[in-house]
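In response to reviewer comment 3 from the previous cycle, which asked for concrete evidence that the modeling workflow produces usable outputs, we include below a single protein chain processed end to end. The sequence was submitted unchanged, and the resulting structure tokens are shown without manual editing.
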Amino acid sequence: MSIDEQIEQLMAEYREQRDRVSDVQRRITDVSSTVTAPRQVVEVTVNGPGEVTAISFPTGAYRRMAPKELADVLVATLAEARATSVAAVARLVSENLPAGGIPAGFLSGGGRVSEVDGGPPMPDLVREYLTNGRPSAG
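The workflow returned the following structure tokens.
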């Protein structure tokens, strides 16, 4: 295999890795977790980046609660929904990307592919080709 063919193959592999990372990032934004508090007092939905997307009160149970008690249930339900979303995102990342160096911005859906440990690993031969236009004889 010639050097040009090797470089072309390595570039194709690199592009595939970048596409996979971009796909995972898109899938992170699709994550959604809904948690319902005991007695169906409140239901909270949180997306992959951890933002609250919906709060509902499926029953009238909240009307019989003291404000502090309702606030405590709401905070606990929000925390559980966020934890569920974080776990789903972590599972998605661990199943699809190499371990280590995943920045928080990426996990929340707002980071860039290049932030993931400098992007997918680029072989030295390809880096030299991109920098100099031709690898040195070696």
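The CA atoms of residues 49 and 108 lie 4 Å apart. We consider this sufficient to address the reviewer's concern, and the full set will be provided in the supplementary archive.
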